[in-house]
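Researcher: We plan to redesign the surface later, but first we want a full-length starting point. Tokens attached.
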């Protein structure tokens, strides 16, 4: 019998339009790896949890933002993307229009809406995830 050591994560890419600015909801990691770095909200999927439910749960736990749905964007699973071991992330997205207040919680020390053009570095492979999201969602982000 094949035994794999693979974890599954669900991450959220949440954009907000604020006037002419496009912002992304980020968390500051409270734990290693990458403690203190900006990252996308997300975390590990529980055994009895649907992917979208996991992404919404992690989003709410880490930022206080409660959404009723997210859309699946893409799966990211490059070997080495997480220094803790093999992890495949099913990334979800939302584009929100209103002014949602956010605050860090759970294993996020801080949560904030950050102007897209100010983002230069993210934990894990989250810059690659962000670049993919911006390319794929370009018509919706205008």
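Model: Full-length starting sequence:
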């Amino acid at each position: 019998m094949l035994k794999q050591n693979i974890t599954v994560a669900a991450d959220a890419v949440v954009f907000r339009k604020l006037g002419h600015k496009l912002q992304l909801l980020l968390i500051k990691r409270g734990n290693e790896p990458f403690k203190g770095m900006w990252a996308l909200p997300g975390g590990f999927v529980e055994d009895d949890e649907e992917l979208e439910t996991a992404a919404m749960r992690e989003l709410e736990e880490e930022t206080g933002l409660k959404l009723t749905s997210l859309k699946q964007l893409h799966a990211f699973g490059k070997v080495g993307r997480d220094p803790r071991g093999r992890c495949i992330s099913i990334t979800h997205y939302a584009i929100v229009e209103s002014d949602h207040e956010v605050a860090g919680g759970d294993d996020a020390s801080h949560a904030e809406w950050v102007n897209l053009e100010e983002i230069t570095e993210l934990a894990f492979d989250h810059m690659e995830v962000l670049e993919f999201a911006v390319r794929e969602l370009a018509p919706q982000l205008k």
